[in-house]
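Pilot study result, target chain (407 residues):
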Amino acid sequence: MNRPNLARALAGSLLLIAASCGDAPDPDRPGVVVTDSLGVALRTWGHTDQDLEAWSADPDPILRVGSLEGDTPDVFGRISSLILVPGGGVVVTDALAGEIRRFSSTGEHRGSMGRLGEGPGEFSTSVTLLRVAGDSMWVWDQRQRRLSIFADGDLASSWTVPTDVSITRPMPVGSGLIGEAGLRVDGELASGLSRPPLRVVRVDRDGSVTELFETEGREGFMDIRTSNGEITGVNIFRLPFGRQPYFAVVPNGHGTRIIGGPNDRLVLREWSGDGELRAIHRYPGMDRPMTEARVQRARDDILTRFDEPSPAQRQQLDLLESTLPDYVPAFDRLWADDEDRLWLRRSVEDGVEEWMVLGLDDLRPLARIGLPRGFALMDVRDGLLGGRWLDELEVSHAQVLRLRTGG
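Predicted structure:
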């Protein structure tokens, strides 16, 4: 049995053992059933969406930075990431310019770093800010596989991930990174649905790589074209409602926690920083069954891209007729804020993002929030929401809103 199959078998065994142990309510955690098996806590929360407190964002921004045209720093090509800084200012990456730009709480430009290029302190168009504690700024360049660390606006150090390790969506931990690395597909390629396994690894500054655990990877449809017995082309189509894993790394006083997993259902797994599975959190009352209305919206979205669907789009339409999960993928982003809360993006429909907020200690459901149209949330700090806002002309702005919590 290979490692991914073994991992799935062990997970299934854990669930069966837990069921045989019997579920007992935890008096200190109303609404949750907790069992334990072989050191893995299984928590099943009884909440539904209607049980969650409704939070909101103040519709009037306290900061908006962005202009339609010109050569000033507030004209953005593509905002790829944004972080809030103490005092209400923002740091923004403009991926098309390869720049990092800082703005005060009043929108004043406080300086820029970087430019397009491959030298020290330069970036490609795949640059992202990583949220870290303290005043230093970590910048990840996916194309160059390079982490750059800035202090007081100057490049302090940088290092590159080894060429034989291609990690994506890295998250900082200590002096290294935890990220996702695809596994090589063994055997002969074949057309059809594919979900190659994904491994989560830690990469340290000295180039050492530690494999932490494996899970199911991104779902896609592989189309293999052959001629005279030879493979002439391989296309991987993005599936409507395709499922994939997402993770958040949460440092704390007791060591690193890795929270996330495949988004097939609203089930969050929790690993230690060494890759040991510690807990499984299930929220069956907040799973969203697939409906014909959701399928029709997906069809309409495909058909509106072009007047005449491309071969890839026709393939997507065919898959909507033949292959659908029973449930809509439960989330597609998650990260922790500075107030011990975990944020999960549940859906994006008609330009409106819906998020769910959990308590970081035990992943208890706390609230749900729908954001203003066109606003993409990228950071939460000190009761503020920071992100990218697209106006009616689809011009990008850096925007900060005030969070309204219940009570």
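One observation from the pilot: Residues 222 and 236 are 4 Å apart (CA to CA). A full batch analysis is planned for the follow-on phase.
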